[in-house]
Every structure is written in C-alpha cells, then in structure tokens.
Amino acid sequence: MSYLSLDEEQAIIELRPMSGFVETSYVKQFVRRALNYIKAGIPVHFRGPTGSGKTTLALHVASKLKKPVVLMHGDDEYKTSDLVGGEHGYRYRYLKDNFIASVLKVEQDMAKQWMDNRLTIACKYGYTLIYDEFTRSRPEANNILLSILQEKVMDLPAQRQGDEAHYLKVHPNFCVIFTSNPEEYAGTHKAQDALRDRMVTIDVNHFDRNTEVAITQAKSGLSQKNTEKIVDVVRGMRTSNPCEFPPTIRSCVTLAKAIAVSKAKVSAKNPIFQELVQDILVSQTTRSPWSPRRKEIENLVRSLIKKYC
Ligand SMILES: Nc1ncnc2c1ncn2[C@@H]1O[C@H](COP(=O)(O)OP(=O)(O)OP(=O)(O)O)[C@@H](O)[C@H]1O
Ligand SMILES: [Mg+2]
C-alpha cells in the first residue's frame, strides 16, 4: 500500500511506443548514440533548429528506458521553486491499495504543505526527466541542476518538511534528456557553461531525405512518388539562399496533408497545386508580407516545382 499525492501522479507520464513513429536507419543511429550516453549516466542534450525532431526523439529515447517520465518545458517566467516545489494551501492525497484495486480513500486538508514539483519528483524516484527547451528558462532558475548532475544531491528550501538536512539524495536511476534551439533563436537564453559542461550535446539537424519522405508519407498518406516530389521542393528551398527561415519537416507534412485533402494533382501544370505550395512554403519561410525577399522566394518555389514536379 502506498500514499501518492495526486500532483505527483499528474506529473508522471507512462510512455508507450508512439504510433506512427518513423524509425529509419538515421533515427535508429541517433537513438543508439543517445541511449549509450544515458546508460553511462551522462545527461544528453538534443540541440537543433525548430522542426528538427528534438522533442519527438527525446520522447522516443525516454520510452526506450522503460521507466516513468517527467516532462518539463522551459519558461522565461520560471523560478527555481517552479522546478523544485513550494508551499501550497491545501492538498489532496489518496490511499491506494496495490492489491485491492477498488480501495481508494481521499483525504483533504488545508494546512500549508510543501509540494514537490516535477524536478524533485524525478530526482526522488529515479525517473527520466525530459527538460524540453530548457534554455527558455533563465540560467538562474536552472542553477539547481548543477549539483543534481554533478554531486547527485539536490538543495531543498528550508520549508520542505520531513527533510532535516534539506538535501535530497538523487536516486541513482535519475536521468535527464535536455532539448534546446540554438542560442541565436528568439526567446532563448544562453545556457551557463557549467551546465553545458555536465551534459553531452548531440546536434540534431534536419532529417535525411529518406527519413523526411517516410515521416511525411506516414503523416499524410500520400503516395511515395508524390511525397518525394514535395520533400525535394522543401529540401531545395533549404539549400537555397533567399529563405529567411528554412522550411522544416512540419512544412513537408502540412503541405502533404493539404494536398491529400484537396486531392490536388502533384504537377507543375496544376494551378491548384502551385497555389498550395506557394501559400504554405512562402508564408512559412518569410518574416512578413512586406519581406524584401518575398518575390525572390516566390520565384524560387516556382522554379523548384518546375524541377521536381
Ligand atoms: N521519427 C519521427 N517519426 C514521426 N514523426 C516525426 C518523427 N520525428 C519528428 N516527427 C514529426 O516532425 C515534427 C517536428 O518534430 P518535433 O516537434 O519533435 O521537432 P522539434 O525539433 O522539437 O521542434 P521545435 O523546436 O519547434 O519544438 C512533428 O510533427 C513530429 O511529429
Ligand atoms: Mg520541440
């Protein structure tokens, strides 16, 4: 029999293999590298541009570790207490009997009580922590991670009850997968050197062609041949200069889904297809409707359609 607070339960995710997850040799090799570091007790960090598959890969790698997962998203507003925990006015607890499933007793009290937040829960029970976009939190909020990753202890505020030393020994099974966008992205902070030094950073770039085709096809249901044409147009845009934002795998999927729904023929001669591609790819790769490069990008899309479709 065990006491679990409802909040602890809500913080935990039991990951099952994702339906529709595409595992090409590129993906398998990436996952193998990451798992190797994690098994050696080293936190991993997937760093890459938007849409490079970081979060999906983090969830997939975590699912391979076969233990509960705690997910946190970096936020500029976070303070250390948002990660660790704080005092709250009331608390629900329920008594769960592991042997008699029907036994469930709910207790409620109004006293100020310490409530562990996600980081503390993961450290205490040895869960996998996915800290997605961790550089969106300010470095001061993330300082708590330094001793967790190095000395394997967590400093706890004095208010936390039931812990005389105000330290929590980090469970040996605890592990972390970080993700981030490169530092020059809007809304990200520079991670402190000491934190970066405590993890292995694996740079994630756009997927190889084979993987992009497989993901786009799995998500849209388009034929292999038509999917390849779309992926080639998107990849052609990425390697050309005028785009302000390179199109991502999301652009491939959005375009393929729109084509599948409209049943538009994937052909340079089809004006509906031309219109769909212009709508989706031009808007996703320009900063504003008045972008000085807009005309250039529209012409680029036209020439790529001609080349591949
Ligand atoms: N292996 C995969 N199998 C199936 N779909 C995938 C795979 N990898 C990525 N995707 C899909 O590609 C898209 C982008 O992936 P994801 O959201 O993980 O990227 P990201 O790098 O975390 O982007 P952002 O920086 O914007 O958060 C998503 O729609 C996701 O479902
Ligand atoms: Mg993401």
Automatic annotation (TrEMBL):
Q: Where in the cell is it found?
A: Cytoplasm; Gas vesicle
- Residue ranges annotated for the AAA+ ATPase domain, each copy included: 40-206
Catalysed reaction, written as an equation: ATP + H2O = ADP + phosphate + H(+)
Write down any Gene Ontology CC term.
cytoplasm
- GO molecular function list: ATP binding; ATP hydrolysis activity
What is one process in the GO biological process aspect for this record?
gas vesicle organization
Mind telling me which NCBIfam families this protein's record contains?
A: gas_vesic_GvpN
PANTHER family, A to Z: MAGNESIUM-CHELATASE SUBUNIT CHLD, MOXR FAMILY PROTEIN
The record's similarity note reads: Belongs to the CbbQ/NirQ/NorQ/GpvN family.
Name of protein: Gas vesicle protein GvpN
Organism, as annotated: bacterium (Candidatus Gribaldobacteria) CG10_big_fil_rev_8_21_14_0_10_41_12
Task: Give the classification, highest ranks.
Answer: Bacteria, Candidatus Gribaldobacteria
